[in-house]
Amino acid sequence: MDRRQALRQSALAVAAFVFSRDAFARDAERIVKTYSGSPAGFIKLSSNENPHGPSPAARKAMMDAVNGSNRYPWEVTTQLREKIASLYGLTKEHVVMGAGSSELLGLVSVMAALQKGNAVAPDPTFRLWMPAARKFGLPIKLVPLTSGKETDLQQMKDNMDAHTKMVYICNPANPTGTIIPAAELESFIKETASRCIVLLDEAYTEFSDEPSMAKWVNDYPNLVVAKTFSKIYGMAGARAGFALAHPQTIKQLNELQPWSNAGTSAVSLAGALASLDDKEFVSFCKKENRKARDIFYTALEKAGMPYIPSHTSFVYFDSTPFNKDVTQLLESQQIIGARSFEAGSKWLRLSVGTVDEMKKVASVLNG
Ligand SMILES: Cc1ncc(COP(=O)(O)O)c(C=O)c1O
Fold first, then answer.
1. Which of 9, 156, 181, 195 has the smallest CB count inside 10 Å?
2. Which ligand 1 atom lies nearest to the CA of residue 204?
3. SS3 state of residue 210
4. Which atom of ligand 1 is nearest to the CA of 228?
5. Pair (193, 314) in one structural domain
6. In a structure prediction context, what are the per-residue pLDDT tens digits for the chain, which is 367 residues long?
């Protein structure tokens, strides 16, 4: 890359970040102004929350755990790490717990920042960890998606240099819902994990049919796989997430936590533990998400709006051909959440709610 290209790319990166932060603040302000006083009765499709959760087993476990919450959560956090490890054929030393996976995305990027270099990430992507990482001195090179809005692995590799300490990939991707097939992702990991940390965000893998990459953590100590109880398990407010990595790497992450593995409440950890056994609930959520997503696809097709087939609980679509402002139209019917992630673009992301909620969305768009 020549100097002009590099300057253009960093200007774009700054503009994209300022845009997304400002857009988010504007959205929050407008929503509060418009709807304060009447929160009940609106359909919230903004944050890819699971409309069905938590699972019945998790609810019961959390209620039972309230009585024991005078004690620190050592026992339950250890049980949970053991349980998670057994699901991935690993040991508890491969597992770190966090207050949501965002805490762990933050810690991994701090770990990278401490090595004094840069990071590479796709654009747009899940950005929550980026502002803190930059404050810790980690400049982030943002790599545009392909013309089909897929993660551009070749460009990501081309943007890595001798100072790159971390590469971030969200698979399936937020906000686009695309997925990198396992074989391609495996060869990317093979090529890059010898050079820097590969932070793989698998928040939505359970909605897809592709496997987790966690099986590679013993082979690649630089690979960190971040996962969450917020999505398929429907526990976003409980703030429970985990990362899987080589024990050496987990140890370094533990050193960055004030109390390793104990940042989440005993109540939430008990819920998370119970939710792992509620397989029926997980398959129910996956099926319902597909049904509701199909209803939304049909509505988009009828409305003439192209979309990207999604492997997640949200859909990215192009509202350009529609004759009204989709966000405003939905909000006028108390449906919140259609928003843009690319400056100057009319591509929007909307979370998939229940079947009934998506029928309401369809009736508003097609009505
Ligand atoms: C891609 C991605 N990663 C991580 C998270 C954070 O999840 P958590 O609630 O576990 O912090 C989200 C939440 O929306 C997400 O979309």
1. 181
2. 1
3. coil
4. 10
5. no
6. 444 444 344 444 434 444 444 444 455 455 444 444 335 689 999 999 999 999 999 999 999 999 999 999 999 999 999 999 999 999 999 999 999 999 999 999 999 999 999 999 999 999 999 999 999 999 999 999 999 999 999 999 999 999 999 999 999 999 999 999 999 999 999 999 999 999 999 999 999 999 999 999 999 999 999 999 999 999 999 999 999 999 999 999 999 999 999 999 999 999 999 999 999 999 999 999 999 999 999 999 999 999 999 999 999 999 999 999 999 999 999 999 999 999 999 999 999 999 999 999 999 999 9
Q: Is-contact 126 172, C-beta < 8 A?
A: no
Spacing, Cα 127 to ligand 1 middle (Å): 10
CA of 195 to the centre of ligand 1 (A): 26
CA-CA distance, 97 to 245, in Å (whole number)?
A: 12
Distance of CA 6 to CAs 11, 122, 159, Å?
Answer: 9, 16, 10
312 Cβ inside 6 Å of ligand 1? no
* Consecutive H or E run containing 148: none
Last residue of a domain, one of 279, 307, 335: 279
Atom of ligand 1 nearest to the CA of 173: 1
CB environment 75-89: b (16+ within 10 A), e (fewer): ebbeebbebbbeebe
Rounded CA-CA distance 71/74 in Å is: 9
**Shared domain check, 76 and 188:** yes
Q: What domain range includes position 323?
A: 3-52+280-366
Ligand 1 mean position, distance from CA 101 (Å):
6
Phi/psi for 228 (5° steps) reads -140, 155
Token digits of residue 47? 């944050």
Q: What is the CATH number of the domain that holds 327?
A: 3.90.1150.10
Is ligand 1 within 6 A of the CB of residue 241?
A: yes
Taking the C-alpha atoms of residue 306 and residue 300, their distance in angstroms, rounded to an integer, is: 7
Q: Residue 175 in contact with residue 316, Cβ under 8 Å?
A: yes
